[in-house]
Specification:
The chain is mostly helical. It contains 16 helices and two strands. The chain folds into three domains: about 90 residues, 434 Repressor (Amino-terminal Domain) (Orthogonal Bundle); about 180 residues, no CATH class; about 55 residues. The protein is elongated and about 85 Å long.
Length: about 350
């Protein structure tokens, strides 16, 4: 039995191997971000698939020696730096410039605080959106019931009571938006500035994102389906009662707002949480390239969404069309990307 490694030694060797894989994974992530490359761009330069790079960065596998040599040349670091069991930073990187010095360092404590705040805020903001969409429901129900003589209130009294409830709900929504913004304000730099995550942060964020992925897909799917099906109560009411005045028509409009509100709430909540992981990992809509483009948009975002809000309120109050005006928000969201593209193209053209 002499010479055979015991269980404790095997466990230590395994732990050391896993630790080495994690250190290498974090170094690849760090160097890729310093050069401003996405996983796809790095994979293309190495001649491998994006999935291979993803596995390296999540420590599910390690690159062979040929790829390590290739990466050392590509990143401008030594193979020793990539392979040794330390997490000290590389002094140089291809494409590094004066902007690297402006990176904000994010450690594990800061990352956990950010994710915790975003998870809480997602629910608060989603509730605020739901309150905004549901705010005219009471006004619609009371107005319809008064007009059909179903309650002992005049149309003026019903409208006044409905408007009071509407304003209270909008006020509550605004309070949720404002307090949520204040709670998360200390993390605004993650959306606008380049960040440099310390050892272990990227791995933690990826693991938690994968745990949340099934919930994200489920809530996003249910939310979209509810928004699409929200018009069904109106069609059912028309089929049963035709164009004859009926309280069922009023109820169908209220049902539309309830279904659409719940759907939008689920979409907003799941998207905000998913976006938190994207911010921390600097991926998707929060990659360094996109951040740079967004910085160039500057005040445009505030002007655009300010006009959208003004248009929503003006249409809703002027035409008394709360049952239809909510469509402004999904349309504005879809149009936002196209408008931003036009603005960027015009700025490039003008120099």
């Amino acid at each position: 039995m002499l010479g055979l490694p015991d269980a404790g030694e095997k466990a230590r060797d395994y732990e050391k191997e896993e630790n080495t894989k994690m250190i290498l994974a974090d170094k690849i992530i760090d160097l890729r971000k310093k050069n401003g490359w996405s996983q796809e761009e790095l994979a293309e330069q190495l001649g491998v698939s994006r999935q291979a790079v993803s596995k390296w960065e999540s420590a599910q596998s390690v690159p062979d020696m040929g790829r390590v040599v290739q990466m050392s040349e590509l990143f401008g670091v030594s193979t020793d730096y990539l392979l040794k069991d330390s997490i000290e930073r590389a002094d140089t990187a291809v494409g590094a410039d004066e902007n690297d010095a402006a990176e904000r360092t994010v450690g594990m404590e800061e990352a956990n605080a950010f994710l915790g705040a975003r998870f809480k805020n997602a629910g608060r903001v989603a509730l605020g959106v739901l309150l905004c969409i549901l705010s005219p429901v009471c006004l619609i129900l009371l107005g319809g019931a008064s007009e059909l003589g179903l309650i002992g209130l005049s149309e003026a009294q019903a409208s006044g009571l409905g408007l009071a409830v509407l304003l209270l709900m909008i006020g509550g929504a605004v309070a949720l938006f404002v307090t949520s913004g204040l709670r998360i304000s200390r993390f605004e730099y993650m959306e606008k500035e380049n960040i440099d995550t310390l050892y272990g942060v990227d791995g933690m964020a990826r693991e938690r994102r994968e745990q949340f992925r099934p919930t994200f897909v489920r809530q996003l799917t249910v939310g979209i389906v509810l928004c699409v099906l929200a018009v069904i109560p109106i069609f059912v009411s028309l089929v049963i009662y035709g164009e004859k005045e009926s309280f069922a028509h009023v109820l169908s409009i209220a049902a539309l707002l309830v279904l659409a509100g719940i759907g939008v709430m689920l979409i907003v909540r799941s998207s905000m949480i998913w976006g938190a992981f994207q911010r921390l990992l600097e991926e998707g809509d929060y990659s360094r390239e996109v951040k740079e483009r967004n910085r160039s948009l500057g005040a445009f975002n505030g002007i655009y969404w300010g006009l959208v809000t003004a248009g929503y309120l003006a249409w809703s109050f002027a035409a008394d069309s709360w049952d239809r005006s909510w469509i402004i928000w999904p349309v504005a969201g879809v149009a936002y990307g196209a408008v931003c593209g036009i603005v960027r193209a015009l700025r490039r053209k003008n120099g």
